[in-house]
Amino acid sequence: MGDLKSFGENGNEVSDVGFEGRRKSCWYEEELDQHLKLCFALNRILHTGASQYQDIALLDTKAFGKVLVIDGKLQSTEIDEFIYHESLVHPALLHHHNPKTIFIMGGGEGSTAREILRHTTVEKVVMCDIDEEVVGFCKSYLLMNKAAFFDPRLRLVISDARAELENCVEKFDVIIGDLADPIEGGPCYQLYTKSFYESTLKPRLNEGGIFVTQAGPAGVFSHTEVFSCVYNTLKHVFKYVVPYSAHIPSYADVWGWVMASDSPFTVDVAELDERITHRIVGENRYFDGETFASDSKLSKAVRKSLAEETQVYTEGTAKFIYGHGTGHKSHQA
Q: pTM of this prediction?
């Protein structure tokens, strides 16, 4: 995980001992790239450890509440996770005419399942996460997702998502990739590849089915890390592909998602809002029709890069965001 350090009032790093009378704070520090770091002041460390597959930490921060960190990368925070999870879930489910069966790749913290289960059309959700320890401590600590884990429509599977999709005969209306970022040595970069999308995932979609995945940073300077490549890869597999993005404060960047289907996306702003009213229990904090219309209008620089992107994500030509996984036993999520 990222480093935990203490700093004095003047901002200089100090040791935990011999700090006579001066106030100090504990900080979580994460490298975004070689020359850029992000720091969060901590109230306390709730959990740290290493599972069979990845390093895990759950931190209580002053600015963003509880923060989940996996393999040194911040995954979500209590204060602004709703932006990420509403953006991941609702566009795909609302563009589908009647989503009943949903498969989540990853999603161990439970927030994606929580948002899916707000949809009244949904009859069954399969959440497949390889890391039982992540799921366990998220169930214990992330109280806002407690109800989702006990919803009778949810079936939790602790397994490799690739193997689960390869072995199951069931098809789904929507498949959601709530995976960890593709980092070198991490557990899931193979689930961003063309071969996986084409041979394993797409055959598990019903007619008219939709796939959506988180696709990494999507800012003006960061979108070429993996976002443009994931977009281009999905264009080689599906007929209709829609990239979109939103600013997430705790990530200190714009984040990207890509939605794909062999059926066209024809739902307009008014119809999205109509479906929100009739299908979703409770009020969204971030997502509505106008928001999606805005989020799917990318900046000139990003549009140009996506249009010119030629790389396809494969096992041999994988792209990674900055960082490195722990390289435990599995390389799939």
A: 0.89
